Amino acid sequence: MTAKQIGETRMASITCQGNLNIDGERLWQSLMSMAEIGALPGGGCRRLGLTPEDSEARALLVEWAMEIGCSVGRDLVGNLFIRRLGTQPDLPPVMVGSHLDTVATGGRFDGALGVLGGLEVMRTLQDASIANERTIELVVWINEEGVRFVPGNTGAFAFAGENTVEQVLADTDLHGISIGEALAALNEAGQEAVGGRPVEAYFELHVEQGPYLERAGVPVGIVTGTYTIKYFDLTITGRAAHLAQPLPDRQDALVGAAEAIIAIRKVGATYGNDGRSNASWINVFPNVRGTVAESVHMSCDVRHADPERARAMAEDLEKAIEEASQRSGMPMTLESTLQFGPIEFDPELVDLLRATARARGHKAQDILTVAGHDAIALASVLPAAMIFVPSAGGLSHNEREYTDPESCAIGADILLHAVLAKAGISEQPLKLAEVNVGVMVCSNGCSGSGSGFAEP
Ligand SMILES: [Zn+2]
C-alpha cells in the first residue's frame, strides 16, 4: 500500500464518525469548575504538585469519571489512570493525558485542557453509547510543573523508566518533605506498577504557551517534535558581610547573579527567533535585609529548534558565565542537569492528527514545542503526539492565560477522533453498563472495576 493510499484509508475511517461531536459547552464548564480549585484573585490557579489543591483537583476528576462508569487506578508514584474499558481489554490501551498541577501563578488551561479534553472524549463516547475496542486511559501525571519538587515531569519520566520508584519517592521539596511522604499524606499513592507495559498511542492536547498559532491565525498546531532544551544549575559563591562593609571589599553574590542573569539573556538574543535563554528561579542565601548575600543558587536553560544551535548556545552560556565570574570576582559553577530533545513525535500519530484535522475541517499547521511536556518525557517508550491550540497573546504561566472556548472544543474534537481511530469502535454491544454495576456496588467505596484495578 502506498503512503497516499494509507492516508486515504485513514481519512475514510475518520470521516465515517463525522456525526460524532464533543460538547464544547460541557468542556468549557468543566474547565471553569476545575479552575475554581486553587483559584487566584487574578483569575488564575495555584495548584502546586502534590498539595491539597492538586489532590482536590484529582478528586473532582475522579468524581466526574465515576459518573460515566470509568474505573480508576493509581500507580506507586501517584500517576492517576481513568479507564474506559475496551471490548478487547488485553490489547495495549490508547492513552490521553496531561497534568492538573500548575505553577504558583498559573492559568486555567495549562494541563487542565489536556485532562478535561480527555474526559470530554470519554463523556462523548458514553453519550453516543460507543464501545471502544482498546481501553482508553486518561492519565494525570504527577508533578509536571516541577515547582514544589524539582525537576518536573516526575510521573511521566517514572513511567518511561527514567527514574526508579525509590528515587522518585525519595525526592524532597525545599522543606525536606519527600514525594513519598506527600503522596502518603494525600492518600494519592496507588499500587499499580509504574510503566513497563505496552501502550498503543499517547495523545496530549495542550495550549501552545507561545504566540505562533495566534499570529498565524491558525486554530490548531500539530506538534511534530520539540526544541532542544538544556537545563543548568548555577551556583555563585560570595561572602556574607554587614552592609557597613565598603563596596570594593565586598563579594556580593547577588551582584554576581545580576551579572549572570544579563549574560544569560544575551546568549539567546544572538540566536534569532528560535533562540531562548532563561534564568527563571533564584535562591539567595541568607536572603536577609542588612546582609551582603553569601551565595546564590539559580536555574537557567537554553533552547533552540536546531539541536546543533542548542549545543552551541550551551557552549556560549558556559563562556558567558565564565566572563561574568571574572567581572564580578566571584566563583560561579555551572552544572548541566537535564536535557529534553530533540524528539520527533511518532510519525504515524502525527500523520493521523493532520488527517483528523483535515477530515474534521480544522485548519492546522505543524509546530514544534518550545516548552517541556509529559508527552516528551514519554516519547522514548511509547508512540506519542501532541495537539496545540492557541494561547491568547502567547501568554501562559500567567493568571491571564486564555484559550477561547471554540479553540478548546476544536482541540478536543481532534483528540476524540484521533483516539477513536486508534482505539477502534467495537461492533460488540456496549459492555460498559456491566462495568458500571461493578463500580457502583463496590462496598468499600473504591472505584475499582472488574478488571483488577483497585484503589489503595
Ligand atoms: Zn503543561
From TrEMBL:
Its cofactor is Zn(2+). Gene3D superfamilies: 3.30.70.360, Zn peptidases. Binds 2 Zn(2+) ions per subunit. Keywords: Hydrolase, Metal-binding, Zinc. One of its GO terms (molecular function) is hydrolase activity, acting on carbon-nitrogen (but not peptide) bonds, in linear amidines. Zn(2+) 1 binds at H99, D110, H206. It holds the Pfam family Peptidase_M20. Zn(2+) 2 binds at D110, E145, H397. The keyword Zinc applies. InterPro entries: Amidase_Cbmase, Bact_exopeptidase_dim_dom, Peptidase_M20. Belongs to the peptidase M20 family. NCBIfam families: hydantase, PRK09290.1-3. This is Zn-dependent hydrolase. It comes from Mesorhizobium tamadayense.
